[in-house]
Write a structure and sequence with these properties.
The chain is an alpha+beta fold. It has eight helices and ten strands. The protein has helices spanning 3-19, 23-35, 39-58, 83-99, 142-145, 159-173, 191-201, 213-227; strands at residues 68-75, 106-108, 112-116, 121-126, 133-140, 149-153, 181-189, 242-252, 257-264, 271-275. The strands form three sheets. Strands 4-1-5-10 form a four-stranded mixed β-sheet. α6 (159-173) packs across α8 (213-227). The protein is globular, with a radius of gyration of 19 Å.
Amino acid sequence: MNMTKVKREVEKAVAKASFDLRADVTKLLKASLRSESKKQAKQALGWILENARIARNQQIAICQDTGLPIVFIEAGVNVKVSASLIEAIKLAVASGYRKNYLRPSVVDPLLRGKSSYQGMIYHLDFSSKQKGLKITIFPKGFGSENKSALRMLNPTATIKQVEDFIVESVKAAGPESCPPFVVGVGIGGTSDTALLLAKEALLEKVDKPNQEKSLNGLERRLLKRINALGIGPMGLGGKCTALAVKIKKAPTHIAGLPIGVNISCHALRSAVVRLKEEG
């Protein structure tokens, strides 16, 4: 893998994720603006879209919270993954933040101290379905990250109990997490798996239905219940508390039912780099 190319493309993706609101998110925001009838809520959605337009045109951050950089690395069967590749990605993310004047927000969790660009969190996976390397840059703001929730339900829990916990988690987030939200949900695995799945769900196309019929139905029911909370854009009330609910699941133990919830504010940001192995 050409490390110079990795650095260049990752730096570009850092900028794109920070400056260009995803097209699928923009599509749902525009649809919500058209359907909203409450004046203040409609005005808030207009401001959100105008903010995104200015950020894209002027190549400035969509939000002052430029997030903690989370990176998902997916390697195809022909890719050689090494410590030097991971280190190159880490350095490229930090330099991408620095070169684009994005806020350094990473600190020691206990000592705190001066913030820096060092602290990228990455998840590495392998796929036989693709060639090359896929790198997803996912800056996660902490106004919404702070409202993450985990519940280890009994395996006898009903679907309604699952739904109730998810809706309660969104209600607890309230206006502090800059709605309208995209709600990521992970079901299954272990406690850490469920929360990771919830984050991965936010990287799905939010304007597309879930390919699994049962999950698609659950997403639709949850979105209806969440929007009935009436929190609305920026907490001003109205029809749109959430733009979408996205769910991913994994097998779990017979004795458990982990449910993870990870909320994104309206500035759901991510960008993808695809690189081919050379030589």
